[in-house]
Specification:
Layout (H helix, E strand, L loop, with lengths): L5 H13 L2 H12 L4 H8 L3 H13 L3 E6 L2 E6 L2 H17 L15
Antiparallel strand pairs: 1-2
Helix pairs in contact: 2-5, 3-4
């Protein structure tokens, strides 16, 4: 039986999280600043229920954390280095090719 290194599992989890356009938009938004779910839903133009499901996925993947703020909960990236990684990935992908699409893009699930 082949064992997978923890680093590979983490990268695969990150990849699955990025496989959904809404989750990508959430991460890119949180890269700019921490946000409350209602504000994120409005900014991204998605329902609060749908956003909540994606935030739960990202939280379960370990990519975002919740920060209690009085009676509200704020979301932010789990580590500032994720913002840098997102910037690096975004610019690298754009530099390679922008006119391509992934044939499996519609089948990607949550982490």
């Amino acid at each position: 039986m082949l064992t997978v290194a923890p680093e590979i599992e983490v990268l695969a989890r990150f990849g699955r999280a990025l496989a959904d356009p809404i989750r990508c938009r959430i991460l890119l938004s949180l890269r700019e600043a921490a946000a409350y779910p209602a504000d994120l839903a409005d900014a991204l133009g998605v329902s609060r229920t749908r956003l909540s499901n994606h935030l739960a996925c990202l939280r379960d993947c370990g990519l975002v954390i919740t920060v209690p703020d009085g009676r509200r909960t704020r979301y932010e990236l789990a580590d500032a280095r994720l913002g840098h990684a997102l910037d690096d990935l975004r610019t690298a992908v754009v530099a390679v090719e922008t006119d391509r699409s992934c044939p499996d893009a519609d089948t990607a699930g949550c982490c």
